[in-house]
Amino acid sequence: MLTMPFLQLEALHFAYPDRGEVVRDVCLQLAPGEIHCLIGRSGCGKTTVLKLAAGLLTPQQGQVQLKGCTVHQPTSDMGFVFQSPTLLHWLSVLDNVLLPHSLHGLVTADQRAHGEQLLAQIGLAALRDDKPQQLSGGQQSRVAIARALITRPAVLFMDEPFAALDAITRDELQRDFLALCHQHGTAVLFVTHDMAEAVYLADQVSLMHAGRIHAPLHIDLPRPRKTAMRYTPVFNALCEQLRHAMDATLS
Asked: Which of 90, 98, 162, 232 has the CB geometry, 3.0–4.6 Å to 170, for a possible disulfide?
């Protein structure tokens, strides 16, 4: 018996009025709990694909389906993390995490307990009452991830959430993010420019160029992913394979 993919992008096309077509015949499937990275140079269309998948844009051709239903707009099954954490500076760390709930009414005791649990899992329990301006950039990104997970979404859409962080903080956050996603069974569509980040995080990597997906790459590395894995020959070989594929798009 054939099973429906969890998230499916079917022959998507999209054009902006001032830029012309930026997404051309994009097809992609995401399984439950899978992490799929879109990588490519600036302007290749990867962020537009992310917005189409999340229902933030409507494809002019093709369709997006989540759990067998056509996506017309963001749903409660989705969470979002963007490059800027966009925290509310007048709210505490915990209240920022609980914001998706408080926007829909009073926060329940169970929801508050879940928020505190998420903060503990990302190492920020002691900062629950601090304001965002008291946090480092990496800490703010952790709060944004906890806020995205507070509603227990089935899928996260992430657009270069770690790009502005220093290398050490980024590595630590990638590790902790993977642990959270594994624990919650969350699927992720993740946009990045960083080849090593894509290989470390993903089960599948899709290279985009000129609005199309080229050279899909399966990442056959064991989970849980360990920091030491970044220095192994097999990891470096996958990064090299992705580099060659990217260079081939320019030839």
From this structure: 162
Question: Domain spanning 1-77+155-251 has what CATH number?
Answer: 3.40.50.300
C-alpha 59/C-alpha 52 separation (Å) is: 6
Q: In what order do the strands lie in the sheet with 78-81?
A: 78-81, 155-159, 187-192, 35-39, 204-209, 212-218
Q: What percent of the chain has pLDDT above 90?
A: 82
Mean local confidence (pLDDT), 90-111: 95
Size (the chain), residues: 251
- Please check the confidence at residue 131 and state whether its pLDDT lies above 50: yes
Q: What is this structure's pTM?
A: 0.93
Is residue 41 a contact partner of residue 17, using CB atoms and an 8 Å limit?
A: no
Query: Is the distance from CB of 155 to CB of 189 less than 8 angstroms?
Result: yes
Tell me the domain boundaries of the chain: 1-77+155-251, 86-152
